[in-house]
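Annex B.
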Amino acid sequence: MQQFELRRLSLAAGLTLSIVLTQNVFAASPAPAEGQNGMVVTAQHLASQVGVDVLKSGGNAVDAAVAVGYALAVVYPTAGNLGGGGFMTIRLKDGTTTFLDFRERAPLASTKTMYLDANGNPVPGASTEGYLAVGVPGSVAGMEMAREKYGTKPREDLLAPAIRLASEGFVLEPGDIASFADGNDMLAQDPAAAKIFLKDGKPLELGATLVQTDLAKSLTAISRGGADAFYKGETADLIVKASTANGGILAKEDFEQYKVRELEPVKCSYRGYDIVSSPPPSSGGLVICEILNVLEGYPISYLGYGSAETVRLMVEAMRHAFVDRNTALGDPDFVDNPVGKLTSKAYAEEIRARIDPYRAGVSEELKPAGFGESTETTHYSIIDKDGNAVAVTYTLNGSFGIGKVAEGSGILLNNEMDDFTMKPGVPNLYGLVQGEANAIEPRKSPLSSMSPTIVSKDGQPFMVIGSPGGSRIITITLEAIMNVVDHGMDLQEAIDAPRIHHQWLPDRVVMEPHALSPDTLRLLTGMGYKVGIDPDWSIWGEAAGILVGGKNLKQIEAGDGARYYGAIDSRATAGAAIGY
Ligand code: DON
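Glutathione hydrolase proenzyme: predicted C-alpha cells.
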C-alpha cells in the first residue's frame, strides 16, 4: 500500500496539475479504542462493559456475545431484545466459521395476503403496528444455542449482569434519552409499555433510573430454565395472551416449535481479503459479495473516496445487486437461492460488461419479466484474547418494534413481519420493492438485510463489522470495508465517513449531508443520476467494528499497531468500544 499517491488533475483551462495526496483522505474522527486482550463494541456502553467483564473473567467471545445480547435487551430497548430476532456470525480461532439464524418466523396462522384489504390493497400500518405485525421471536433460542455450542460459561453467569441491570435499574444518560426520543409517543399508547418506559405518562428524564422488574423476572426464568422457560413456559403464555387479546395470531405452538438454524455463512473474497457474512434468510452477505465482486474489477483506491467515478461504479454495482436481492432471495427452506451465481466472479464480470461507462443505468430496465422509513436494529462486534470473533446483528425491526409490551413479561415485541413482501411491487418500511420469493408463508422468515460480517486475511481475523439501518445495512457494512481496504482510512474514520446508498428502486442515489461535493454532484447529475440528500441520521446506521493489528492498513502492514482496535459509529448516541 502506497502512503502517497501522485494524482494528475486536468483543470478546465487545459492545464494539468500534479499534486501529492496522502492516502488517508479522511481524518476528522477521534482515535479508535485500543486493546491487547479483547475488544467489545456495542451501541450501549453498559452492555459493552458487560462483554468486557465476561472476557476478563475467562469467557470467550461467544460467552461475551450472549451476555451482551441479554444486557442490550435491558439497556438498549429500542433494538436490544428478547422479543425479536437476529443473526450471529462466528469465526473461531482455528478459522472455522459458522452462522446462527435466530430470526423471527411467520406464525402458523399467517397467510400470504394477511395485510391486504378486500380489494387486495395493503392496510396501512397492519404489518408494522399492533400484534398482527409480530413474528415468532428467536433471540432467546439463538443466545442459548450459541452458549451451548460455542460458549464456555454457565447460563446463570451470562444472564446475571442483565438481571442485575433490569432489577436494580440503570441511570439514563444523554445517549439513552436520545434513543428513547423516537419511541416515547408510541410507548405512551400501550399501558404495559408506558408503566415501564414512562413516568406518569411523561418521558423519563436525564438521570432517572430505569428499573424493569417484569423483564428481570423473565430473564431470571431463562437463567433457571433455559430457552424452554421462554418458549414452553410462562413467558410464551404471556405473549400469546397479549397477542390474542389484541388482534394477533401468535399461538403457543408457534413458540413450542421455534428452531434456530445453524447455516453455512456466505463466503467470498475481495482483493485478497476473505469475507464471511450472513446467508439467506438474510440478503446481506450475498449482496455485499455481489457488489464487492463487481467493484474488484475497478481501481477503486486510485479513483478515490467520494469521487464521481467511484460513486457511480458503487451505485451501478448496488443497482444490480439489489435487483437480485429483491426479486430472487428468500428463506432457504422455501426458496432456492442462487447463492453460487451471486457470489461468482464470472457473474460479476457479466454485470461489469453491462455497466455504461458514460450514463447512469436505469433500474426499470433491470426489472425481471412478470415482476409485479425511524427504525432501529443493533449490531455488536466482539473479539477475545484467542482471536475468536463474533458479529451479531439483532432487532425488533422498527424502533421499539410494535412499541407494546406483553403484560407481565417486560418484553417489547417486534414488527418483523413488515420485512416480508405484503404485495409484490409495494414498498415496505425501508422502501424495498420485493417479489414472490419473499411472500408470507407459515414458519417462513422474512428476508433480512442484516449483515454481521467477519473479514480475515491470510487465515487471521482482520475486521469484524456490521450495522443497523434497514436496507442500508448492506451498503453501510460494504462502505466500512471499502474505506479500510480501498481508501486506507482508520477504523473510526471508515465507520464515520459520510455514506451513499442505492437499492435499485426507487431509482435514486441517497447520500448523507456532505458525502459528495457540489462538483461531484454536478458530474453525477450530468451522467443522469438522481441524487437526494437524506438528512435523517438515525437511518444511516450505527456501525460497530473491530480491526486487528492496527488502526488502519498502513499500521497493520508496518506491524507496529496494538493488537485490537474498536470503533462505535459517531452517529451512535450511547455506545462504546471498550478494549482491555
Ligand atoms: O432485518 C432487516 O433487514 C430489518 N428488519 C432491519 C431493521 C433495521 O435495521 C432498523 N434499523 N435501523
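Confidence is low (pLDDT under 50) at residues 1-26. The chain is about 35% helix and 20% strand. Further annotation is deferred to the next reporting cycle.
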